[in-house]
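batch job 7 of whatever, protein = IPIL1 protein
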Amino acid sequence: VTAELMKSFLPVFKDYVSNTFYPVPQEAIGVGSAFEGWSPRDWDGVYRVLVPLNPPPGHAFHLELNSAGQMAARTFSVRVELVCTCKSEQLGKKLLCFLHCSKKKLWWKKKRSLLQTLCTGSYLDVKKTCHWFYQLVRSAWLHVPQSYSWHLVFQPCSRSCQFWLRKGKEKLMVEVLFGVRHGDSDIFVASQPTEVQNGGSSIMVSSQPAKANFMASTVWPETYAVAEAKFFQHIARQMPCEKLHLKCLQVFTCTLRGTGFSSSTWKNVVMHVLTTVPLSRWSRREFSRWLWNTMAYLQRCLQMKHLDHFLLSNKRLPAEINLPPVMRRLEPLNLFEHLARDPTAHREAMQAYGQLRFR
């Protein structure tokens, strides 16, 4: 339902922004466990999609890194630059050039650049973009076929567009995130899911600042969710038993409560195992064996106090997953670095592993 709704929205969105200088929404991408085919025990029941935003005519987006820090917690600002369109045409008409047209002509034609609408200073503002996107969805709703059978109710949110869909006793929660792509890669900077805004963990960002609520409105966290979803699609095409790896991941995430291990940790572990063992050897008869093999992989990582972030500097990454060149040259990020620094945390992690093994 969510995927079909977003397909219906897209042409309406593009029609609404066609004669404006607002960002241009692109085809939505399903992200998170619901679209990857597995869900942790504590899944919040929200179906999330990411809508890439392209710059409007006469504008360009430039991603500027705010602070290097930990790779999995990088944040960016999206600088908006005006570009000359004096020699450009759209639908056979000459485009206004915000760089070279007189202010009088722009005022007369009632045209405002993106810098004057959704930006704070020279940077794209997440909250202003969110408010605009809400209005876009509200205006488009009556023009999609789903409006005849579903009832849409918006939820208040400052960094994403969240709404309920209801039809009789059936209902589902949809959250639309929006973001800007790193070049032509599968990595984005994006708005934040509600769970992050409320201080929880996130499927969008591997690691977030503790007080996400106080993040500046021009700050866009980096997300690997699209690349991860693409990886699981790649594995499904290669796997003899299409969903066996997802069942493996689901079994673990359903037994994690109270152990201290997050579902994102297990996701990284399972993705590593999937690239170190030939997929032809995965079978239903060997399912329990693969559960134990995955446990053994985690145990080695805990003993060594080292678990590489799956997507960064991974030479086994499928070629179809496109990373920015700079990310392929980075040193791998150790997700267990805190265990190496804190003996107490390492001892507790080993005890949690023993508890998980017993379960």
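notes: The longest helix spans residues 287-304.
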